[in-house]
Amino acid sequence: MPNNRKVHLFIPCFVDQIYPQTGLATVKLLRMAGCNIIYPKEQTCCGQPAFNSGYRETATNLAERFIKIFNDAEYIVSPSASCVSMIKNHYAELDLRPLVRHEYDNIKHRIFELSEFLVDELKCTDFNATFPHRVAYHTSCHGYRELGIYDQPVELLRKVKGIDLVEPDDRKQCCGFGGTFSVKFPELSTTIGEDKVEAIQQTGADVVTSTDDSCLMHLQGLFSRNKIPIQTLHYARIIAGGEALI
User: Which of 49, 78, 119, 212 lies 20 to 30 angstroms, CA to CA, from 148?
Assistant: First the structure.
């Protein structure tokens, strides 16, 4: 599927430090789609944790660093709706220097979450994957509410052979993680998460997937704590070859 598009890959902190398999799956999918991948090694955090915690100066410094590093990118793609939303929507709220703001205005329309890039930009949906499991799709709040991502990951998953794709009744409801929200309000975060877990259990799924490993980490913690035999797996890892569950 040659397309010769130059894609700068942005790998968020969660993926880099905790779920590197998601990053590897992203690379595989982009290569299968015919993209030329560029990975700037000097990249760091997008600044979302600092932004959400009220540390605007730190968030601004990280934003300006990101903009400088990715300024020349034809496309920027990331396997995290949450981080893409931070860059695409919330950098505008920061006190960026005038020249940097001009550069930001030039790149904010060139950054995509992986599924929207594959489906909307490349029209590439079938990667010949097989995954014989019942899979529940959880909608990331940032992806749905701030980026308008709803059908793209599902369209990719529906092309996977052997998959039994189901949707919880509360597919659009928050899982309770919310980044620093789960740290500031752990009891509320857990309660919201338990409601989500109950809805997922009712689907009979043995796997849960989403656009964000952060949501999946939160849910996996609840599954494990309550000895519920459900696994979590980023959709990129499913469609990049239907890897076996560990």
Answer: 49
Burial degree of 204 (CB within 10 A; 0-12, 13-18, 19+):
exposed
- Contact present, 129 and 29 (Cβ < 8 Å): no
User: Measured between alpha carbons, how far is 132 from 206 in angstroms, rounded to an integer?
Assistant: 10
Check: pTM over 0.85? Answer yes or no: yes
pLDDT by residue, tens only, the chain of 246 residues? 556 899 999 999 989 999 999 999 999 999 999 999 999 999 999 999 999 899 999 999 999 999 999 999 999 999 999 999 999 999 999 999 999 999 999 999 999 999 999 999 999 999 999 999 999 999 888 778 889 898 999 999 999 999 999 988 766 677 666 666 666 767 777 777 788 888 899 999 999 999 999 989 889 989 999 999 999 999 999 999 865 443
d(CA 165, CA 174): 19
Question: Within 13 Å, how many C-alpha atoms sit on residue 29's CB side?
Answer: 33
Two structure tokens written together for 106: 């030039």
Q: 2, 34 in Cβ contact below 8 A? A: yes
Can you tell me whether residue 75 is helix, strand or coil?
Answer: strand
- DSSP 3-state assignment of 106? helix
Taking the C-alpha atoms of residue 220 and residue 231, their distance in angstroms, rounded to an integer, is: 7
Q: Which two tokens stand for residue 112?
A: 């995509």
